[in-house]
Specification:
The protein has two domains: 259 residues, Alkaline Phosphatase, subunit A (3-Layer(aba) Sandwich), CATH 3.40.720; 110 residues, no CATH class. It is 42% helix and 11% strand. By secondary structure, the chain is of the alpha/beta class. A hairpin with an 8-residue loop joins β9 and β10. The radius of gyration is 22 Å and the shape is globular. It has a six-stranded mixed β-sheet with strand order 6-5-4-7-1-8, with helices on both faces. A two-stranded antiparallel ribbon has the order 2-3. Strands 9-10 form a two-stranded antiparallel sheet.
Length: 399
Amino acid sequence: MPRLLVIGLDGATLDLVRPWAAAGRLPALARLMAAGAWGPLRSTVPAATFPAWTSLVTGVNPGRHGVLDFTERVPGTYRVRFVNGSYRRVPALWTRLSAAGRRVAVLTVPATYPPEPTCGVMVSGFDSPLATAIDGSFVHPRALYRDIQRAVGRVPFADFQEVTTGPGWHARALARLLDGVERRTRLATWLLARERWDALMVVFGESDTVAHHFWRFHDPRSPRHAPGPFAGAIARVYEALDRAVGALLAAAPPDTAVAVVSDHGSGGASDRVVHLNRRLAACGLLALRPAARGRVARLVRAAALRAVPAGLQGSLVRRAPAAAGRLEGLHRLAGIDWRRTVAYSEELDYHPSVWLNLRGREPEGAVAPGAYAATRERVAAALATWRDEAGRPVVERVW
């Protein structure tokens, strides 16, 4: 049985890979595309990092594996909490391979903390709490952590702060991303040479992070386009990732089966912002508190973030996940008058959900259980009939 090598490029898109590979800028990926099969993958609903990678490694959709987002609602409250790999309800591929006696190496796959006792090695992804870098508890077996430090130094988590930016931030971020690709490659090739393995999976998050922060420099069609010295930043990261793919292919036995996969794509932002809760309010489904109360809640969140040193803000979720969850819930939902609200959204900036304010489930539920189905259809109709100023549907589909 040939070995299996899975290389994940988070957020990578064929819209960039195809032209750059054809132009000779991504030779390793171009060779794989020429020698094998390739094409666009349909992502999950929602098309987000945690649910998509979890579906890829379990083979089931988010409704079955239970990881729907970076956060989930805390039952019986209006708060949210950040999730990790322990929320997955279905065994992952490496669990099944381990049970069959196959040795695996799983490196920096999102939503894999805490590490599972696999037959082999696991280095958890960026959902690992920051404190685990002290004792190595994001690594299985834990004793391997010191060897990793000696071999590659700092494990390349996405640990530079992304909450606030300022002069010089983009230059520092780009350097950190390129360094992260190099360190992650060294970690993977070191384990390829050191370990006896039947399947190895490594995920690079840099392709996603660079798109989030540098797409507006790359794409002249972006409504936020800003020409300048970072126009080539995304290409530089993709070229670094291509070198990583080449290094991994060179380190693997020649008969290894290789898959290069992405969880979702990347692209430009819209020229408008959608506020679901405003639509629900306009349809009489949601009521807002007086503006002063919502403003106070936002000020509390802003003040709390200011109390955290700038260098630590980006790692707040990993340093204090419970506190970060409370702040996030305050930011999203503090302005809602629950007793007069039928439905509400947490207003994520990708595939947001809408919840019914159900009596007996929510603390101040307004929807009787017997009215659940009819209210759900009413909410779906309010969203499906929403049009912008040009008469175009704002919401394409309601699940």
